[in-house]
Amino acid sequence: MNKLLGISVLVVVISVAAYMGYESRFYDAPDAKTYDVINAEGKVIDQFTIPKITDVVGHKDEEAILYGMRLLNETARLLPDNVGNGLNCNSCHMGQGKRELGAPYINTYNRYPRFNPRAQRVLDLNERINGCFQRSMNGKPIPIDSPEMQGMHAYMKWLGGDVAPGNTVKLTSLEFFKVGKYTANANNGAQVYAAQCGTCHGSDGEGIKDQFGDYIFPPLWGDDSFNIGAGMARASRAGAFVIHNMPLSVSREAPLGQITLSEQEVVDVVEYFTKKPRPDFAGKENDWPGMDNPADSRY
Questions:
Q1: What's the topology of domain 34-169?
Q2: Alpha-carbon distance 229 to 178, whole Å?
C-alpha cells in the first residue's frame, strides 16, 4: 500500500511539474533581446541590450536616474503644478520607455537636437519634453535647469547605454498610420471601443483611478485627457500606437498580453476617440508655420 501511495504521489508531482512547465511559457518574461547598434551610414558597429534597473545601483548618477524614472512613471502625482490632467509620461511611453513599439526612450537622448515637422525647426530635448507637458499632459513647462528636467535627462541617457551620439539602436519603427487608405467608421469604432477598450479606459473614456485618486488607466477624452495639440489626438499617431500596443492583458502572449486589432478596426476606434471632446491647446496657431495642417489635425 505504501509503495502504491508513493507511486501515486510521484505521478501527481510529475504531472503538476509538467503542467507548470507548460504554463510557465505563458507567464515568464522573454529573455532580454539584443539589438544592433548602427552608425550614420547604417553599418552595424555594436550590440545593445536594454539595461535592468538594478544596474543603476552604484551608478555615479544613481539618484538622478531613479528620480527621473519616478517622474516619468508618476508625473501627475509628483508634478501637480505642471500636469494639467491625469496623465503621466509613461501613459504613452510603455514599460518605462523600454518597449520597442511603445514609444521608447532608448534612442531619445542621442536623437536631440532634432528637426520637428510640427514646429518646422530644430528642437532640443528640453523643448521636446516640455512640449509633452503642454500638449499630452495639458500643463506647463518645467524649468530646464530643475532637478526634474535633469532627472528625466539622466534616466533617458542611462537607458540608452553607452551608445555614442550619432549612432542608433536599431529598433522596429513605429510607423505612422496611413489613415487615408481607409474610410473611417466612428460608429463601428464605438463598438470596438466598447468591446476592447472600455474595460480599462472607462465606458465614457474617463479612465480608472485607484483609491488615492491617481489614474491606473488614463482617460482618453474629457478634461483629464490630452489636449488637441497632442500627437495622440491625431489618428495617424494614435493608430500606430494602438495597433502595436492595445488592448492589453487579453491574451497570454508576451510581452503585454495584447492582441492585434485589424487595421480597419484601428482606424475606426481612433476616429471614435480622437474626435471626442478634449481640452484646447493655446498656441495651436503656431503649429506647422507656413504650411497646411495635416489632414488628421484637430485644428
A1: Cytochrome Bc1 Complex; Chain D, domain 2 (1.10.760)
A2: 19
